[in-house]
Amino acid sequence: MTRLTFLGTGTSQGVPIIGCKCKVCTSTDLKDKRLRSSALIEHNGKKILIDAGPDFRQQLLRENIGNLDAILLTHEHKDHTGGLDDVRAINYLQKKILPIYCEKRVEESLHREYSYAFCEIKYPGIPQFNINIIDSNPFNIDGVNITPVRVYHRKLPILGYRIGNITYITDANKIEEHELKKVMGSKILVLNTIRKEKHFSHFSLSEAIEVAQKVGADATYLTHLSHQIGTHKDLSNCLPKGIYASYDGLSVETE
Ligand SMILES: [Zn+2]
Ligand SMILES: [Zn+2]
Ligand SMILES: [Zn+2]
């Protein structure tokens, strides 16, 4: 069994956006409150987090998560890495260093952004990460097989991840055919879309639907949603069969 819980489903600014008075940002529907995109995958008794954005603390508190086995990072943008200082709580509770899996370029970014966590003489109480460099080849974490999927975020090569029958892809606007083969057969697909209109670095709604239909998973959930895509209700009403709008707190599972 593999379960995915959406910790956040919003684009980089989150929804509501500070100061915005639009219909989506002022909606009282809890499904329109979108924290920065992140997901927890539970597989074979392991808890693996994908991305740790600025809302990491709030997300772990809301879902009552006190332990993690690893964090996989898709890329270095702050909406996916900005919460890593709060790994301190996990270090303290589990009394261990938390493994992070990312590409070399992302590691270099973490060294810059969290320089205090990597210095020779460590200040007490700083976050403790153990970085494992990966590429687009499959790897294993304590018996859990992970298949990275190479996708492009404008020109930036970043990673999606397949664990069991669930594939999670965010911040993409291009996937090459040979990489899409790794996604084929997934029962659940998570895919990013930011809005209906074309965007330079994210799938538009119609582009995401096209990829989803090509993969043909039993269910595809859309994430990394901006306020421009509309309310959860409006978006849900315009999606084809088998494609759903995700929302914060939604949990889905498959064999
Ligand atoms: Zn993002
Ligand atoms: Zn708005
Ligand atoms: Zn990004």
Description:
With 255 residues, this protein is α/β, with parallel strands linked by helices. The protein has helices at residues 56-62, 78-81, 87-94, 104-113, 177-183, 205-215, 232-237, and strands at residues 2-8, 38-43, 46-50, 70-72, 98-102, 129-133, 139-141, 144-153, 156-163, 166-168, 188-192, 219-223, 243-245, 251-254. The chain is globular. Bound molecules: zinc ion (3 copies). Residues 17, 20, 22, 24-25, 227 line the site of one zinc ion.
Q: State mean pLDDT (0 to 100 scale).
A: 97
Bound molecules: zinc ion
Low-pLDDT parts are none
> So what's the overall shape?
globular
Structural class computed from helices and strand pairing: alpha/beta
Features:
seven-stranded mixed β-sheet; 14 strands; 255 residues; binds zinc ion; alpha/beta
Short overview:
The protein is an alpha/beta fold and 255 residues long.
Write the layout of secondary structure elements.
Elements: E1 2-8, E2 38-43, E3 46-50, H1 56-62, E4 70-72, H2 78-81, H3 87-94, E5 98-102, H4 104-113, E6 129-133, E7 139-141, E8 144-153, E9 156-163, E10 166-168, H5 177-183, E11 188-192, H6 205-215, E12 219-223, H7 232-237, E13 243-245, E14 251-254
Parallel strand pairs: 3-4, 4-5, 5-6, 10-11, 11-12, 12-13
Antiparallel strand pairs: 1-2, 1-14, 2-3, 7-8, 8-9, 9-10
One zinc ion (ZN) is lined by residues 12, 37, 77, 79-80, 171, 224.
